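Deliverable D5.2: sample structural annotation.
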Amino acid sequence: MNFRKDINGLRAIAVVAVVLFHFLPGWLPGGFAGVDVFFVISGYLMTGIIFKGLENNNFSVLNFYISRANRIIPPLAILCVALSIFGWYYLTPLDYEPLGKHIASSIGFISNYIYWRESGYFDVNSHEKWLLHTWSLSVEWQFYLVYPLVLIALKRFFSFEIIKIAIILITLTTFITNIFFTYKWPDASYFLLHTRAWEMMAGGIAFLCPLTISEKRKKILEFIGLMLIVYSYLFVTEKNPWPGYFALLPVAGAILIILSQREDSLLTNNYLSQKLGLWSYSIYLWHWPLVVLVYYFSLSIIYTYIGIILSITLGYLSYRYIETIKFDRNYNSLLALVKLKPLLMFFFVAFVGSMIYVQNGFYSLSPAAYQAIHSNAKPSPFRETCHIASYKEPSTSCEYYGREINWAVLGDSHAVEIAYSLAEKLKLSDVGLRHFSFSSCEPSYNQNKDYSECARWYNESVKQILMDKNIENVVLNHRHTFYLFGGDASAYPQAFSSNENEGAAQLIKNLDRLIIDLAYHKKHVYVFYPIPELPRSISQLAGLALLDKKGFDAIVGTDKHWYLERNQFVVNHFDNSNYPKNVHLVKSQDVFCDNEFCYAVKGGVPLYFDDDHPSVLGAKMLVEAMNIQ
């Protein structure tokens, strides 16, 4: 196909949006839609290549695949090799291992399936995945594999006019499928081919149905297309179901710009747009690892802007010295085919990534003290079976150990390890407990079922505890500050600000009423102060200590002042409370902190298994602080 400057400029519009969204999401909250613009462009160009070959009766599927491999694999392979070398020196084994898996799946163009199975695109953990952005390359490659075969099959039985109608019908069908999947299975819809194919096929329709219009109408068409794309960049956010019907905005916008065919447009045919368009693939490849780099090492905002500049610089270098290489497309035997350089790159990178993954990031080579932290930073072995995330009858709650069940633990996910560690202590006296915990469940006592997702369960659980005459002691633990004000320690050491509101007052009222009612009916009630949070997961903090060659006996999480500032409302409330004498307030901060710092690892013991839940060993220390007689 002839080089079209307007399409090249459209690539620039797409890549700039994606880069800005990832580095500075507040600037372009819908910038992720730039990927959808790329899909339309790919569909347009691939349809053109395939149809012209079919019309001339000289289309070769193998040549098509080789051409795509020559274009896509070399820059991606260089990026993967660079990350594997970087990871050897600067990543912990626990982070290096998934990088190996992601390298192998990215070069094998199945990473979209891997990321779909792991989590959602907008999850916090996405900023720990160095090759997350390659999901879109995998979708495109899968489309390239299937699309020409479908068109060849159709050509055997139908005319080109019928094939065009078939493509339109298939596009409509997959678009409707995409809408259904987006609301039913949003993660699968975001990552998988069957809900993305319509975007590329829509580009194909733009090729098959060109417009012949006046220059004035071309300008109008281009302007409308640009406005649709800009609107999606500015007003669509990650909270909107995506792709769904919202994706029509950037897709339709890209189609209109392509159909306008304005080769002399100042919007797309200017020096900057043309250069960024030429470098767009390599810019896209390099920008996301730089985003992760800023996040992984908690670099300051200045590095965000440096990252944008580096993305363009590395994109240019990759284009200049890798993309422009003219790889051999000729083969006359199977051996010659296998020896094509992009295929050799594929095999090499796939092998490297697989070895990193199979060797667990070469975990066995790390220091014994580091391995000890990792092996001891464990959750309760009953977390999966006894902790719930949706309603279940409280009567089905777990009972631990002893014959005499006279304890109960009630709370959210932060109560799970406390329940297990307490049960381990009590079983020495043949005493057991009942475990009631529900994920992200704020105190919802005496509230109707619409108050919170767990309100029904919470009140039924409290009722069971109150009515069970054998239960004499109750332990309460919730992540109170999170429910009151949101946020976490990820912004540490930035100051935390909170403003009391009506919801906060109601939550505290629910909690106080619960404590007083339990105290009236039970022998002892134990209530934990907020457990300190970590700015990063325990594995990451231990990994940074490994990279910095620091000791593992004590690893700081936050300073004590920050903890008190973040939890000021709850701490002050408990400090000044007037509960009955049989209510015992347990100061978690006295266990996990000293006068200056709150720790992730203390005395060589990992106190957490992630960034806010206590490990079994950390929970054991909290249980000891209850001073049970």
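Annotation notes: The first strand starts at residue 398 and ends at 401. The chain has two domains: 5-364, 380-531+568-591+615-624.
The annotation will be released with the project's public dataset once the embargo ends.
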